[in-house]
Amino acid sequence: MKKISDALHDLVAENQFFEFGLSYRIFNLTQLAKFIQPLLEARTQKEVQPSAILMSLSRLQRTKEKVAVQPTKFRIENIFVRSNLSTITFFRDPNLLKEIRQISGKIQPVNSFFEFTQSTHEITIFFENALTELVGSMIMEKPKYENRQVACVGVSFAEELFEVPGFLGLLMQKINLQNINLIEVSSTYTEFNFYLEEKDVKLAFETLHDSFLR
């Protein structure tokens, strides 16, 4: 089994958020010890007391220096915005999937924005507001949730970053620190999309730009 100090060292080294907080001494170490307790127990495979974590955190923090924790490898290539979108969530149903595929087939020739995600029990679609009438005429199911004031802020990045641990987490961390509510996220091999309220687009765009492009 791993020692607490070794597990803590690995945890901090792998996480930009912890590295930054300890380097600049912005954490309440007592609260941080409680927060990471289950993370360390998973790594050490044993029960760990917050007091023991606190001692290790104190020793580790003393060894840290103020360093730039935004390495050059964490850079994006482009940011794009899609405004005037709607989102609707339905309970998952085989007929609904068929209707969604029909809609997708109709709009592909005109290159309109339409995307859907599905889980075990739900299906969520995102589409341009201009498609509202078409979507309403082809989907008869009652929605579980809908929002007509949605936008998408997306980023594209180099293929090499696909294998870099923590990159997508760092993107989301920057948005979360601005207290922006994320309606949904989606991703492909080299793109990551944030779906949020229209009112938050400017702040999200500038946050990602200043953090990863400037």
Textual characterization of the structure:
This protein has 214 residues and is of the alpha+beta class. Helix content is 43%, strand content 24%. It is built from eight helices and six strands. Strands 2-3-1-4-6-5 form a six-stranded antiparallel sheet, covered by helices on one side. Helix 1 (4-13) packs across helix 3 (29-44). It is elongated and about 65 Å long.
CA-based shape: elongated
Distance between the termini: 43 Å
Radius of gyration: 22 Å
Low-pLDDT stretches are none
Q: What average pLDDT do the residues reach?
A: 89
Structural class: alpha+beta
Q: What is the count of β-strands?
A: 6
Structure summary:
This protein has 214 residues and is of the alpha+beta class. The chain has helices at 4-13, 16-23, 29-44, 50-63, 94-107, 132-138, 167-177, 201-212; strands at residues 78-91, 114-118, 122-128, 145-156, 182-187, 191-197. The chain is elongated, with a radius of gyration of 22 Å.
List the helices and strands and how they pair.
Elements: H1 4-13, H2 16-23, H3 29-44, H4 50-63, E1 78-91, H5 94-107, E2 114-118, E3 122-128, H6 132-138, E4 145-156, H7 167-177, E5 182-187, E6 191-197, H8 201-212
Antiparallel strand pairs: 1-3, 1-4, 2-3, 4-6, 5-6
Helix pairs in contact: 1-3, 1-4, 3-4
Task: Pick out its properties.
six-stranded antiparallel sheet; 6 strands; 214 residues; alpha+beta; 24% strand; 8 helices; single chain
